Amino acid sequence: MTRTKPRDRVFLDANVLFSAAYRADSGLRRLWKYRSVALITSGYAAEEASRNLEDVDQQRRLGELLKKVEIVPESLGRHEPEGWNLLEKDRPILAAAIRAEATHLLTGDTRHFGHLMGSTVEGVQVLRPAQYLRR
């Protein structure tokens, strides 16, 4: 049997993980069905998503979803290139996506990542989940 090599390496921000686990019928769960996509996140993002989910069923769903996501190390100490213009708490997300050689970073955080939406930073295209799912 031949395995399909992932076409995209998609880094999921904490708010995407949160939203996918929040409701059992979340449309974001479609991401987990794409065979040509490798889903990745960091421990930092997974921890933030978990911390914000209050319901036991939501926590269980997050755990199930994370079983199919590659957890990559944080990029501690990575120097921030000019132009990121991100809050300190958001820098580890983009840095981890870059270090993991993600093709995309999906985030719903338009407040902090909005200025990067649609742009590519060091090889990582920053998109809202809906933008990626429409492709």
Describe this structure in words.
The protein is an alpha/beta fold and 135 residues long. It has one domain. The protein has six helices and six strands; from the N terminus they run βαβααβαβαββα. The chain has a six-stranded mixed sheet. Helix 1 packs across helix 2. The longest helix is centred in the middle third of the chain and has 11 residues, at 56-66. The two termini are 28 Å apart.
Strand-helix topology:
Blueprint: E1 8-12, H1 14-22, E2 37-42, H2 43-52, H3 56-66, E3 70-72, H4 91-99, E4 104-106, H5 110-113, E5 120-121, E6 124-127, H6 129-134
Parallel strand pairs: 1-2, 1-4, 2-3, 4-6
Antiparallel strand pairs: 5-6
In short:
With 135 residues, the protein is α/β, with parallel strands linked by helices. The chain is built from six helices and six strands.
Number of individual domains: 1
Order of helices and strands: EHEHHEHEHEEH
Largest sheet: 6 strands, mixed
Over all CA atoms, what is the radius of gyration? 14 Å
What's the total count of β strands?
6
Please state roughly what percent of the residues sit in beta strands, choosing from under 5%, 5-15%, 15-25%, 25-35%, 35-45% or over 45%. Answer: 15-25%
Helical region count? 6
What is the helix fraction of residues, given as a range? 25-40%
Bulk shape: globular
Amino-to-carboxy terminus distance = 28 Å
